[in-house]
Write a structure and sequence with these properties.
With 310 residues, this protein is α/β, with parallel strands linked by helices. The chain has helices spanning 4-8, 31-36, 38-66, 83-90, 109-112, 118-121, 143-146, 162-181, 195-207, 217-223, 226-240, 255-273, 282-302; strands spanning 70-77, 99-103, 130-134, 184-192, 247-251. Strands 2-3-1-4-5 form a five-stranded parallel sheet, with helices on both faces. Bound molecules: adenosine-5'-triphosphate and magnesium ion.
């Protein structure tokens, strides 16, 4: 198992200034785990993923039954960091009726005609559900920050300076605080990939006909802005990792490590809510017993007579 103390290290403490160059992208566990070798580490990561996945499936049912809380899980990353695969693996045990995934691409004309949180607010999880945002309102301070001309599609001309972005961070913090105070758990994951691993994954996409569809010309174009994106992520995560809606910077160069860490973090956060199946009151228990007795009686009168040969 990965050491739970290690897992806490990926949470970005509120008020700290994040330096992504100091956060590992290739992490294999505790020092002891490193001595174990790659195969053993992978085995442990997969065991943790399995355990957390089973726990998630069970707790999701309790969230659905109690219908008082919802969970919003945000995934952000550079291209090819493995958002899709992580979502697929981590949520694979969860009842599809209790889970909603939304992938946010470039905004439509209608989206642009509204405030910058509008299209995301429309997709928030209902009470009792887990909602996953594959990219999110954070794009409004990431891709839009790297390409500030995108803001001009929406807003009157003006300065896009530090104060402008600080106001957006403040709006996001307020938005998330509002959600949390209304029973939503907000968890945010940045899958932290190295530039070199991205290069390998792009090449793999180009070489494999089954993966080529994933490649888009904009991938290479955006890669040229790597440093600008890292800076935008550092600023956004530093300003919006709060007590109520923390960010986790997850090492993503090894897919099995990223998936295990994400699954465990989500399972732990839900476990800490301490939700229990709703209690059945005395009257309800009496009604259930009466319903059961009625069904029993029905069976007795309708059951076909057994033939003597049976
Ligand atoms: P993959 O990791 O598999 O490439 P993806 O999430 O990058 O998946 P794509 O269809 O490749 O999906 O890209 C979606 C694009 O939409 C991204 O380049 C993202 O930056 C862009 N996008 C998302 N939100 C906005 C926004 N608000 N304004 C402008 N562009 C946006
Ligand atoms: Mg992409």
């Amino acid at each position: 198992m990965f050491d739970p103390k290690d897992l806490k290290a990926f949470r970005v403490q509120p008020g700290t200034k994040l330096d992504l160059s100091k956060c590992p992208t290739d992490w294999t566990g505790t020092r002891d785990a490193r001595k174990l070798g790659k195969d053993q580490v992978k085995k442990r990561a997969l065991a943790l993923l399995d355990k957390s996945r089973a726990e998630l499936a069970a707790t999701q049912e309790i969230i659905y039954a109690t219908n008082t809380n919802s969970v919003l899980i945000v995934f952000q990353a550079m291209d090819a960091a493995g958002k899709d695969g992580t979502i697929q693996h981590v949520m694979s045990g969860v009842d599809p009726q209790g889970c909603q995934v939304f992938s946010f691409k470039r905004p439509s004309e209608e989206d642009l005609d509204h405030d910058f949180l509008w299209r995301y607010a429309k997709c928030l999880p209902e009470r009792g559900r887990i909602g996953i945002f594959n990219r999110s309102y954070y794009e409004e301070v990431l891709v839009v920050r790297v390409h500030p001309e995108l803001v001009d599609r929406q807003l009157p001309s003006g300065k896009r300076d530090k104060a402008f972005w600080a106001a957006r961070y403040e709006d996001i913090n307020g938005f998330e605080h509002h959600l949390v105070r209304n029973g939503t758990i907000v968890l945010k994951f940045f899958l932290h990939l190295s530039k070199e691993e991205q290069r390998h994954r792009f090449i793999a996409r180009l070489d494999d006909p089954k993966k080529a569809w994933k490649y888009s010309a904009s991938d290479l174009a955006e890669r040229q802005y790597w440093d600008d994106y890292q800076k935008a992520y550092e600023d956004a995560i530093s300003a919006t990792s709060t007590e109520w809606a923390p960010w986790y910077v997850i090492p993503a160069d090894r897919k099995y490590v990223a998936r295990a860490l994400v699954a465990d973090t989500i399972a732990t956060a839900i476990r800490e809510l301490g939700l229990k199946y709703p209690k059945v009151s005395k009257e309800e228990r009496r009604a259930l017993a009466e319903a059961r007795a009625q069904l029993e009686r029905e069976g007795e009168t309708k059951r076909p007579k057994k033939s003597s040969s049976e």
